[in-house]
Ent-kaurenoic acid oxidase 1
Amino acid sequence: MAMVVGGMGAGDLAWWLGLVFGAAPLLCLAVWHSADAWYRAAFFLRHSGRRRLPPGHMGLPFLGETLSLLWHFKLARRPDAFIAGKRRAHGAGAGIYRTHLFGSPAVIVCTPAANKFVLQSADSFGVRWPMPELVGHTSVVNVEGASHARLRGFILAAINRPSSLQTISTVVQPRVVAALAAWADMGTIVAATEIKKVTFANICKMFISMEPSPLTCQIDRWFAGLVAGLRAFPLDFPGTAFHGARKCRRKLNAVFRQELEARRKVDKECDDLMSGLMHMEDEQGKKLSDEEVVDNIVSLVVAGYESTASAIMWATYHLAKSPVALAKLREENMALSESKAGSPLMITHDDLPKMKYTAKVVEETIRMANIAPMVHRVANKDVEYGGYMIPAGWSVLVWVRSLHTDPNFYHDPLTFNPDRWDEPAKPGTYQVFGGGYRICAGNMLARLQLTIMLHHLSIGYEWELLNPNAEIGYLPHPRPMDGAAMAF
């Protein structure tokens, strides 16, 4: 009588086992390579084999290498291993790799020379955020040409020139001082949360003349939802980060449009960024539309507080683990405070040149934080670089994080060491604010806010991390998983 296993003949069982352990892996292998083969074939047909795509792999159909990115950034919590894996698999070469991320075929560039080439080639590369509608199609981060130059010029004048920074330093410090006193009364804080509150309150005051209220608390939550979707996979159905971000963006649009209408009804004049945008005119006297004003307010608030709050949090984190650096910071700032007879608590823009060690702490914090690990561009045309072709229409990801964590450029790069800034960084290896004609317009504002917080922290307070070995999450921005909980 034939052997039967669970009602199945031995021959049938062998057939199924052969299918599972033979055909199934081959099918998976075929699926894995199908997208890459498709793009390579399309490229070959278009260029008749005369050009080469950068080395790399396009990953799975539709998903590309998004799952790999999420694995390295969210689960393994080893973000630098994503690029390191490409270098091992495809060689260092020109520092350029093909991939598929954020729903689009893409090229990653990750060397000083390649990054500089992309960031400074305005004719060849435009801006392309993964989901441009989230930051606003007409905002300064998305528009090109004359519109970008006009908006950027206004923003630089409003928040980045010395006279503006002097005014800002006067406006933000009372709230910072009050917040620090409140934290001391609380005893323990979650630094990421509390720093975000005070930074957001200051940005709301400077940009839209709003004082803390239930409405601004709600606006803060909507911005948090918006930021969570900026680097999410573009799946628009309930439950996804992208869907939630779009809902938050619609609510932000509504509340800021209401503010615009309210100002017009009472002819309200405010000395803030929103009013400045409302009154901007081009060479023909044309003002910005309401959509343009709202798009720019949303993008500037995101840039002005989310990244700055994150950098301040990382400064408190690293200084808590670096007693030598903290002692040097205290010494410099105590001396400065004691020299300011009559107003020991407040610093001005004129004090910044005296705060040399504080400036080194600021730069080291920003380098290690890597708040924006990549800069998004798109190839406007076929572009050759390093012997390879970047196809027109492909996204280009300028991977700045890889520069700041590379031991070839920074000795022991994952160690907090402000004294490394006794010498300037090697050319092209420090791109925390991007580069080229679109370098972050608020870079000096971010540095000023960080300097102000460091000054008042170091002259009056002590703090200690409750979980110094807490794991780090890296999306949407790097932060300790406990939010840098600390005794204050």
